[in-house]
Please model this.
Amino acid sequence: MSELHIMFKEMGITHAQMIVLRIIQNNENMHLKEIATILGTSSSAATQIVNGLVKKGYLVRKRNQLDRRILKLALTDKALAQIASIKSKSFSDLYALFDALSDTELIQYRELSAKITGDNFEETAIRKDKDLC
Model:
């Protein structure tokens, strides 16, 4: 069992529930049907996942005051803290992996990754610099 799955177990959530939390974190105005589409599941299955998260205190449902049919899902402070903790742990693990590489090996890794993905890090950095000006 991976460390990530151990963290999910400690939180009392499934991998699918964590995905839903991340979806809502990145798309605050997403409807349940859209979440179901992203998960590749039915609306009723997505509803069950959301219900579990509400019950555990990770999500709250908010009704639109102008249109009561519209339901918005929002992360609670508890969810935000858990997501931040998982993110921090994930970055720590990545840093530990890359610490084993020398500067030369890191450059080689970056170049190989760029070759595989077709991404040019230098061009991207230049574009970002121009966008800032």
